[in-house]
Amino acid sequence: MSIKYALLSLLSQQPCGVGQLRQTFESRTANTWPINVGQVYQTMQRLNRDGLIEHIGTDSGTAGRNAEIYQITEEGKHALVQWWLSPTIKSRDDRDELVIKVAMAALVGANLTELIQKQREAAMTELRAITKLKATTPPEQSAQRLLLERRIFDLEAEARWLNHIETLSPPKENAK
After folding, report:
1. Where are the domains of the chain?
2. What burial letters (b/e) apply to 68-83, b meaning 16+ CB within 10 Å?
3. Who is most buried in 1, 12, 18, 160, counting CB within 10 A?
4. Handedness of CA 138, 143, 148, 154 (dihedral sign)
5. What's domain 1-85's architecture?
6. Where does the record place the Transcription regulator PadR C-terminal domain (predicted)?
7. Mind listing the pLDDT tens digit for each residue in 78-134?
8. How far apart are CA 69 and CA 56, in angstroms?
């Protein structure tokens, strides 16, 4: 995820300084994606350079420090809408450790049945834990709730995939 668009989203609600943006981001995302103030500061510099935000003044911050306050520009609002309307598709080139593990185990003749069974058990254990956690999470569309829901679907898909690959033929000896 690009922090750039998360910050633009927050600035579309109200002008803010770097520290407040970081705190608001972490609060709204229930710390599911921690960011440091340096990352926010650098991103804000790029957004300002690119004309997506503008500096509108300073505000007395805590500990006697002045905080530079920024607001989103019309160009920034347009970029934000374009981001919201652009689908997020995982790259076909995404690395998947489990796929490589299964492929290499099959290649060298390791015990695939045991590997798949242990992976399925781990996925189901995690699925049960996340389902319990979800039961204690408020039902609104918070970042934490959305993340738990997404993880549940991912684990269910992993279990289905593991069931499926058990039915596939092993690699041919000469397919090296």
Report:
1. 1-85, 97-166
2. bbbebbeebeebbeee
3. 18
4. positive
5. Orthogonal Bundle (1.10)
6. 95-166
7. 999 999 999 888 888 888 899 999 999 988 889 999 999 999 999 999 999 999 999
8. 6
